Amino acid sequence: MRTMLRTAFSRHPHLRQDFAASLVVFLVALPLCVGVAVASGVPAELGLVTGIVGGLVTGLMRGSSLQVSGPAAGLTVLVLEAVREFGLPVLGVLVLATGLLQILMGVLKLGRWFRAISVSVVEGMLAGIGLVLIAGQLYSMADAAAPASGPEKLVRLPGALVGALGSARPLTSLLVGAGTIAVLVLWARMPKQLRAIPAPLAAVGLAALVTVVFSLRVATVEVHGLLGSVQPPPPSAFGHLTDVGVLGTVVAFTLIASAESLFSAAAVDRLHRGPRTEYDRELVAQGAGNALCGALGALPMTAVIVRSAANVRAGARTKASRVLHGIWLLLFAALLPGGLAYIPIPALAGVLVYSGAKLIPLRGLVTLWREHRGEALILVATAVCIVAVSMFEGVLIGLALSVVKAAWEASHLKLEIVDKGAGPVQAHLFGNATFLRLPKILDSLEALPQDRPVELDMTGLHHLDHACRTALESWAERHSAAGTEPVRVTAPTEQARPTEP
């Protein structure tokens, strides 16, 4: 045995660090896999299946060597809506189609283009998800049923929390969830020896211990068994792919899962000095994992920054750590599935409330408002639309606003008027002259005195589209027809010449 270990360490010099890191990632991933599954309205074991696939399949593939994949809180709200609307058998079809679409995009080398998506849209998307996630999981903490729509969740939440205070079981459930959140918040202040245990595991473990010791009446995770929970989608479920709503959900899954994974990869690259992410290969790896998860009827996966950061900070050097973490999840699901039955649901809800709060960039929003108010407004608008309407429409609105803002900034145009009281009036144009700013420029030019000669200098323009050129020439002809000297136009690429009336 000792000889085998020496041989393994000689062939894989970083195996010791990767082995230790894999245990840390496993302990972080276990409660999150279960919590995301329960919050998504599917059996808890399906969260473990997605985590296992993320380790053993996506973990083995090329792309980003140190980021870890699994079920993510960012897709919880969308998965819950999909399961409610289309049913659990169709979820596998949605995830399978998402994976195949990701593989196609990776093969077509579209992965790098996801970096062109406005960061404000992505952060607004995550903030909206965080708000809906917090609202929904607070109902679980209070042992109450959550309304279906985002606005209703927010409106009825105070009443649900107040109502829980007047009943024994809901109050107990609420206290267990609140205690879990308190442990998560305060864990960073614990002694260094205790902080070796990941905060989510410590919080859920303590909640389970208190629940068992004091025989508290709270809901716990239902155990179905790993094989009993894995249900590949039946052939009839694939007929739903002709439904516009199903196709829209696939697009939403693909957009959100891909963007979150690739943004996570960029963040992980900043945490270590190892090989950089190959974005197209990473997209193929995520697609392969999602395709297999769909075939097994499990949850969709993304790269998860919480687990990935834990992996890097624990000293991981190669992708072996994330593969090993998948093995530990598989062993737990196969050998100790009964342990899930001791986990209180309000404790998992507390973990997700805490995770949802982390998705809302309050400090970043303040800084963004000071420096780039347009981006801050896009972030807020995206989040509000996700809460008020739905995930898919909210993201589309955010992308549309981002495009409009980019077009507006690309058409930035400045007009300077120099009037010395005698001689010609000088008008200087700077920037990009497009049809978007044309009405304002024409209003300023038409306000110039008709009885004075005008010199229009356009050499400061970087771009002059056909609509603007035509409109400015027409204005020059009208102004010259008033009986004054012809407007002298200095075009961006030619010498000054008079424009004849």
Automatic annotation (TrEMBL):
Disordered: region residues: 480-501
Domain SLC26A/SulP transporter: 15-382
Pfam families linked: Sulfate_transp
Topology class, membrane: Multi-pass membrane protein
Database matches in InterPro entries: SLC26A/SulP_dom, SLC26A/SulP_fam
Chain segments annotated as transmembrane: 86-108, 120-140, 160-187, 199-219, 244-268, 327-356, 376-404
Transmembrane helix found in the keyword field: yes
Domain of life: Bacteria
Protein location: Membrane
Keywords, comma-separated and alphabetical: Membrane, Transmembrane, Transmembrane helix
Protein name: SulP family inorganic anion transporter
Organism from which the protein derives: Streptomyces spinosisporus
